[in-house]
Write a structure and sequence with these properties.
two-stranded antiparallel ribbon; alpha/beta; five-stranded parallel sheet; Alpha-Beta Plaits; binds iron/sulfur cluster; binds flavin mononucleotide; Rossmann fold
């Protein structure tokens, strides 16, 4: 198959996921083209047998800037596509997050072949512990195998929403005005800022320009993706009314050790915020076991969960990054 993966990413988690999916499809002998949204208005979609659409969940929705970008694309009638989304937790309302994209793709006549929800660490609210991140990536690698098997064996796997989740997602979607409004409150501390220009260079909506003295100036088309504050080597950017929820420093997902942590981070006794994870793990485990059984019956090799370590990322060159980010892993 000739596969196109179109995605939006704030803090590179969706890019990480896209790279993993691309590697796996390529290992199965498929050709993959990746297109990361970077403020442009179009990309070539003709000639692909399958299109993957990837995004981070923002406030139980897909990012508005990405919806707008997809709306401008042309797809042939009957174009098969799948969704791969990721977020920090799996509260059931997240099941409704693709409702806008599904609607606009339906209008274009495209046909949904599957929807997959990966869990990656929060880039907002609070940072995740290394063992937790490792455990999430372990389950993500199982879900990746499920996705590859489904899409290469004509199997459709959908995520079901309902009226209440759709309604909640719709109400929370008012956060889409939060970015432009919050932009007025974004600031770079002149005493901390090193005038490196990294934030302006990386902002995916080109919302940041540099003043003559090198200090960033924020315009008003922010997607609240967190990339600028996440990447700033001097922790100089304050992010308005989200400042209390700021998480700084990349997780370096490509360097996380393989396999589950020595002791499970999430257990059936996990409560409060963590209570939604055991169900998600069980669902992934069940789907993965089914895939293994079907492969065994068909005499196909069983999935390997190895992730390449320190694989190069697509898109921006990693060497642009300053040597010491305020990281957590
Ligand atoms: C503005 C904003 C809103 C978010 N809302 C949600 C949410 O509703 N549910 C959730 O599980 N995670 C939420 N997250 C966390 C991200 O979905 C998660 O960290 C994701 O992996 C980020 O991917 P990216 O690096 O590709 O942008 C939110 C993050 C941001 C910045
Ligand atoms: S990334 Fe940080 S240090 Fe660099 S220009 Fe932007 S605010 Fe200043
Ligand atoms: S200003 Fe910062 S948070 Fe807003 S879109 Fe640009 S990088 Fe993302």
């Amino acid at each position: 198959m000739n596969i196109l993966l179109i995605y939006f990413t704030g803090t590179y988690h969706t890019r990480y996921l896209t790279d993993r999916l691309a590697e796996r499809f390529e290992r199965e002998g498929h050709a993959v083209t990746r297109h990361e949204f970077f403020g442009e208005s179009g990309c070539k979609t003709e000639g692909f047998d399958l299109v993957g659409i990837g995004y981070p969940i923002h406030g139980f929705n897909s990012p508005m800037v990405f919806n707008r970008f997809l709306r401008g694309l042309t797809f042939g009638r009957g174009q098969p596509y799948f969704l791969y989304k990721n977020s920090g937790e799996t509260f059931a309302v997240n099941n409704a997050s693709s409702r806008v994209i599904k609607r606009l793709m339906r209008k274009k006549g495209a046909v949904l072949r599957g929807e997959y929800h990966f869990v990656l660490p929060y880039n907002i609210h609070f940072p995740y512990q290394p063992d937790f991140v490792r455990e999430l990536l372990y389950y993500d690698s199982k879900l990746t195998e499920v996705l590859i098997f489904d899409l290469t064996h004509e199997r459709t796997r959908l995520i079901r929403s309902n009226f209440w989740y759709d309604l909640a997602s719709f109400f929370v979607s008012v956060q889409k005005i939060g970015g432009p409004v919050n932009s007025f409150l974004y600031r770079a501390d002149p005493d901390r800022c090193r005038r490196c220009g990294l934030c302006a260079k990386r902002c995916p909506t080109r919302n940041i320009t540099l003043r003559e003295d090198g200090l960033p100036r924020f315009r008003h088309r922010c997607a609240m993706c967190m990339r600028c504050s996440f990447c700033c080597p001097a922790d100089a950017i304050s992010i308005g009314f989200l400042q209390g929820w700021k998480v700084n420093g990349e997780y370096h997902l490509d360097r996380v050790p393989q396999g589950p942590p020595e002791r499970p981070y999430i257990t059936d006794q996990s409560r409060g915020f963590y209570a939604c994870f055991p169900r998600t793990y069980r669902e992934i485990e069940a789907a993965f076991s089914e895939v293994c059984r079907l492969k065994e019956e068909a005499g196909e090799p069983l999935p390997e969960l190895e992730r390449p370590q320190s694989a190069p990322f697509a898109g921006e060159a990693r060497e642009e990054e300053p040597a010491s980010l305020p990281g957590k892993l």
